[in-house]
Amino acid sequence: MKKALPVSGVGCPVSGGGQQDSGFGSPHSAFCTPHSAILSAARAAAKSAYCPYSRFPVGAAVLAEDGRIFAGANVENASYGLTLCAERAALAQAVNAGCRRFRALAVCAGSRTPATPCGACRQMLAEFCADSMPVLCAALRGRAVIRTTVGRLLPHAFRLHNASGRARPLGRPLGTGK
Length: 178
Fold this sequence. Notes:
Elements: H1 35-46, E1 58-64, E2 69-73, H2 86-96, E3 102-109, H3 119-128, E4 134-138, E5 145-149, H4 150-153
Parallel strand pairs: 3-4
Antiparallel strand pairs: 1-2, 1-3, 4-5
């Protein structure tokens, strides 16, 4: 029996112990935790993937604004459209834990070549994440990593606007001041 992934607790405090991620480079210098922590969480999550049809395990980990890391794995279904991607699984765990703002996402998939989030996952990222948020896409084996941002993945994301025509704050439902 596979061990359940923790809702959080991968542990990634932004202060103390961790060193600044110097390898991430400009324009992501505000990235405040070693990218290896979320990449490790994403790789670990991929081990829990349920992918009997594609045999393509994917793990993802999202770093919340408060420093917690939430991980998820893809869960396939015989009706392919019902498959839950790892990125959406990680975001759903974070949102269910009360997080609405995020600092970074890591996705680990593919044996030697990294895979990027699908269109549905990109739109879900646009719902909660700033265009400038870093996204790391890594291969499960090897060292290949694609570094990008939410805005580069989905440059013209669909976002609802409030009654005044202004975009609503990220991660906040339409019509609420919260």
